[in-house]
Amino acid sequence: MEREEIIKKVWELAEPVIISLGLELVDVEFQRERQGWVLRLYIDRPGGVNVGDCVRVSEVLSDLLDAKDFIHHAYHLEVSSPGVDRPLKKKEDFSRFAGDKVKIQMSEPIEGRRNFTGLLRGYEGEDVLVEIDGKVWRLPYGKIKKANIKYEFDV
């Protein structure tokens, strides 16, 4: 089974469980790292998650993944918060986090640029709206390679 298939299957298996615990599945990664294969899930909820939430999800999913047994090599399971630079994956994320500063990388250039950092204005039609220096850019959702909240610390 290929990496993308494993991610899709984990997402389908994990999301209902995580929702039933009052949490949101933000992202799933499956990649080879120095210590071996790592299956990493990011969870969240309004107000954030704590270590107890991560432990609870890890325990439930570990048993479920062992029972389903579709990952045919050794891996480490990690469950954590998405952090302050939370990825934006779902269309709903772009409406929910309107008003926050974001960094978006496109798979194809728009007017000669691939990277956009500005104020998220929401989601309209099939476009993500980002305001940069007073101009609102319409970025096609289907061409977004990566998008994250860009948290700025007050100093």
UniProtKB/TrEMBL annotation:
It comes from Thermodesulfatator autotrophicus. Required for maturation of 30S ribosomal subunits. Belongs to the RimP family. PANTHER family: RIBOSOME MATURATION FACTOR RIMP (PTHR33867:SF1). One of its GO terms (cellular component) is cytosol. One of its GO terms (biological process) is translation. The keyword Cytoplasm applies. It is found in: Cytoplasm. Keywords: Cytoplasm, Ribosome biogenesis. It comes from the Bacteria. Residues 13-85 form the Ribosome maturation factor RimP N-terminal domain. Residues 88-153 form the Ribosome maturation factor RimP C-terminal domain. CDD domains: YlxS_C. This is Ribosome maturation factor RimP. InterPro entries: Ribosome_maturation_RimP, RimP_C, RimP_C_sf, RimP_N, RimP_N_sf.
